[in-house]
Specification:
Structural class: alpha/beta
Distance between the termini: 55 Å
Largest sheet: 5 strands, mixed
CATH superfamily of the largest domain: Periplasmic binding protein-like II
Bound molecules: glutamic acid
Shape: globular
CATH architecture of the largest domain: 3-Layer(aba) Sandwich
Number of strands: 13
Mean pLDDT: 93
Order of helices and strands: HEEEEHEHEHEEEHEHEHEEHH
Strand content: 15-25%
CATH topology of the largest domain: D-Maltodextrin-Binding Protein, domain 2
Number of domains: 2
CATH class of the largest domain: Alpha Beta
Helix content: 25-40%
Number of helices: 9
Low-confidence stretches: 13-23
Length: 273
């Protein structure tokens, strides 16, 4: 008798567990815990310091997770370098990527995007005393740095054919090279550049040129074709903008770098397809 009751309780528990896993799901994604890809080395956007994660992408991701039913302490943060984002999503190593990830047609072949949740522009970071670089047109004879797999590297090669471009895996490697004098400029989104320029060790030593020449629409990357999850993330982004949390997160994370969100912000997220 006793044994039977225990067995029934165990069975009920098993059912409850599988039911709750089901209830939290969105197209097969378990929303009770989420693995989210972010950058680990971009101040103001995605930065890991010890066990602490900060930045606009971290706040956007945490807000979205909350709306999906995942508390902040149930998020596993994974480093998502530019060139690895599609693979991390496609192979199921992460559920979402929130990592200064521009929505592009080429990437849409491999992953789906919710958003945009922010609009940035590609710019140049140079040493503070350098007035010779004013934009893509003044890069002849200069050594440039960007990151493999980024829109930044691709767009500068398209815009300035034959440009002397060194590609690293992360932007922080480019910043070190710029400060050390082995390269002359770093090109990527102005958000990222502003974050580096305002870091204590680079203050007064580096400056953003301030003439953005592209539009980068940041999206949340997820498994291609998971429209259910995409719709939920899109709604969460809309909620974040509507309830003031988006503005607060932008001010808190980009304010210290004196970054002013360009026209078009906050954006209107597109419909998931
Ligand atoms: N937003 C651009 C991209 O997705 C540049 C920044 C980055 O590499 O994360 O490629």
């Amino acid at each position: 008798m006793r044994l039977r009751r225990v067995a029934a309780a165990v069975a009920a528990l098993g059912l409850a567990v599988s039911l709750s896993a089901c209830a939290g799901g969105a197209g097969g994604t378990d929303l009770t815990k989420l693995r989210i890809g972010i950058k680990f080395d971009q101040p103001g956007l995605g930065l890991k310091q010890g066990d602490t994660y900060t930045g606009l992408d971290v706040d956007v991701a945490t807000y979205i997770a909350g709306k999906l039913g995942t508390p902040a302490n149930a998020i596993t943060w994974t480093q998502a370098p530019s060139a690895q984002r599609e693979t991390l999503i496609d192979t199921g190593q992460v559920d979402l990527v929130v990592a200064t990830y521009s929505i592009t047609d080429a990437r849409k072949e491999k992953v789906s995007f919710a958003g945009p949740y922010f609009i940035a522009g590609q710019d140049l970071l140079v040493r503070a005393g350098d007035s010779s670089i004013t934009g893509p047109d003044s890069l002849a004879g200069k050594k440039l740095c960007s990151v493999t797999g980024s829109t930044s590297a691709q767009k500068i090669k398209d815009k300035v054919p034959g440009v002397n471009l060194q590609e690293f895996a992360t932007y922080s490697e480019c910043v070190s090279a710029l400060a050390a004098g082995t390269i002359d400029a770093l090109t990527t989104d102005d958000t990222i550049l502003a974050g580096f320029a305002s870091q204590d060790q680079y203050k007064g030593k580096l400056k953003v040129v301030g003439a953005p020449f592209t539009q980068e629409n940041y999206g949340v990357g997820l498994k291609k074709g998971n429209t259910d999850l995409c719709n939920k993330v899109t709604q969460a982004i809309k909620d974040m903008i509507a309830d003031g949390s988006w503005q607060k997160a932008v001010d808190k994370n980009l304010g210290p770098a004196n970054y002013k969100a360009p026209a078009g912000n906050p954006p209107t997220p597109a419909a998931c397809s």
